[in-house]
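Hey, quick one: can you model this chain's 3D structure?
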Amino acid sequence: MDMTIEAAANMRQHELSRKKCMAQMVLLVVLGVVISTFLLGAAIRYVCAWIDNGRRPFNLMF
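Sure thing. Here's the predicted structure for all 62 residues.
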């Protein structure tokens, strides 16, 4: 993870402004966010069902 952040911090502006790179970066970011959202939602649902044993809905308030 640290290497990814370091590599992103050291990128030059002209590397980011190329259309081909930008499309690839946006695609990877969107896929990463969607996959992470579903995995986190599934984990929370599984843990809440395990805690509650299916007797009643388990509500989370943030």
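One thing worth noting: The longest helix spans residues 19-52.
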